[in-house]
Amino acid sequence: MAEAPSLTVWIQRAVQGQPGAVEHLFSELYPELRRIAHARLYVRGQAPLMSTTELVHESFLRFTRARSLALDDRKHFFTYAATVMRHVIIDLAREQQAMRRGGDSDHVALDDLSPTEHPAAAADETLIEIHAALEELDKLDPTLARVVEMQYFAGYSQAEIAELLSLTERSVRRHWEKARAFLMAQMS
Question: How far apart are CA 92 and CA 62, in angstroms?
């Protein structure tokens, strides 16, 4: 009986555009992707923007729409998955923020409204601020940006990040602290 192709082989097939390869990758990695999505969405007891299943499925759709995947192996796949999940979350936060600010509804004069604070708006605005600051960090030091992306947006542990980025856990901790300091300075 022939041995099933490795995950790396399936990644290579997906990169080459072989029909069904991306779908196979997602079916193989679905439990791990759900764990990552769940860890990110349910951080610090905040109400999630979307369900775990929605995040994984939207990420899958974006993978399938990608014109050219440049993935080498399992580590690269999960790093890319963290980036895709980040963009899904940020896009949803922007969409919800736009809807709270009127979206496509009729505009009403500000004099007609009483000022109210929307707590959910602050969370979306913070996510968008973090995203913008992270884009600036990526220009300066892509590794620091990947650490933040993987820990904050994908919910990876520092040990997982160390493995995926081929770093030591100590380096990941240092990168995390350095990146946090940069992001806090950018956002203040």
Answer: 14
| Contact criterion met (CB below 8 Å) for 181 and 136 | no
Write the pLDDT tens digit of every residue in 123-162: 667 778 888 888 999 999 999 999 988 888 777 889 999 9
Cα(99)–Cα(51) distance, integer angstroms: 19
Dihedral, CA of residue 16, residue 20, residue 21 and residue 27, to nearest 10: 160
Token match 């990552």: residue? 36
Say what the pLDDT of residue 110 is.
29
At 37, list the tokens. 């999505």
Helix axes 7-15, 74-100, angle to 10 degrees: 60
- Tokens 């949803």 found at: 92
DSSP-derived secondary structure for 138-162:
HHH-HHHHHHHIIIIIS---HHHHH
Closest CA to 85 of 151, 22, 6, 144: 151
pTM: 0.59
